[in-house]
Amino acid sequence: KKFFMFTMDEATKNAEVVKKLHKTLRSKVKKGYPPDEVWANLLKDSDVLSEYSKAMSILALQYWPKDTSQSRIKWAYNVCLEYFYNGGAYKSAQKYFKQQMYSSLEKNIVTEYEKLTIESELRIFERDWKSLITEKIVLLDVGSCFNGFKEFNEFLVFPIDIAPATQDVYKLDFLNVAFKEVSQSFTSDQFTLVTYIRDNLTDSLLLKAVFDVVVFSLLLCYLPCPEQRLKCCINAHISLRLYGLLIIITPDSSHQNRNAKMMASWKNALEGIGFVRYKYTKLEHFHCMAFFKANETNILLWEKYSRFLFIPQDFQEIKEEKVDINCSEEKFSSNYNIEELIQVCNLSEL
């Protein structure tokens, strides 16, 4: 393609920096090192994080195709507008409540009280659903790198990353974040709420149930084990207000049905912890999913769902091989598809 007629040296070097780190983390976990220990050691290695952050931002800003029809950032933007401003939230919740009631009736397990409760919840939502249409959409972009959503005026963005590439991204480890309850008095209007979020956001603290949207753009696939992926999804559930959106984008350059079982498994895991799928789209290089937070669930039941959040690399054998960061174009292209690797190895595109 014409787009890839640039000199390959810098592109391949930065793509390999990213690929090497992900592979190293997975390899350590497979060898038996505790995942939490592997992650903690990564956070302490400022040199590795700095190199990784720089590589990611270069790939995203300089080598990402400008085809907006295949842009995952634009996909997330359009889904948010549809959900919050064009009736998507109302239709989804209405469908969800009715499915809950009819499913229970078909199984003959619903009591009259439960039926009345479901109907009451639907009426309450029908009365209050317009509160979801906020002045602006408060969005938490996890693994943001360089704040890829800042161009959209409809969003109030809180970008976070363990290794920010720009000064407008907060440094925060979402995997191990603590949550703080929010007093009702701080949620009375959006300005007060956003100010309170900003004032309380530290490198280890977020507010509970205040975000309209949480975005995982190529985040889960970079974590080395299913348990950490589930923990991030649980933290997203805690971060979101009721009926807020979790947007998950994960790389896959194969045809839509090749990894259909994996996508079905992810859906089962997320629905098991209190989400309901709102939308799914397969772009050329990505699976794009949106889920809304439907209910609060029993945290004791969440652990069993971690095994569903697998990726193909979880099943690959450990190979002891040294990655040559300074590999030539000829050597690199003999082992990898450069276009696919660059597509996968970045966090956000313009």
UniProtKB/TrEMBL annotation:
GO terms for biological process: methylation; negative regulation of TORC1 signaling. Gene3D superfamilies: Vaccinia Virus protein VP39. GO terms for molecular function: methyltransferase activity. Transmembrane segments: none annotated. The keyword Transit peptide does not apply. PANTHER family: S-ADENOSYLMETHIONINE SENSOR UPSTREAM OF MTORC1, S-ADENOSYLMETHIONINE SENSOR UPSTREAM OF MTORC1-RELATED. This is UPF0532 protein C7orf60. The gene is C7orf60.
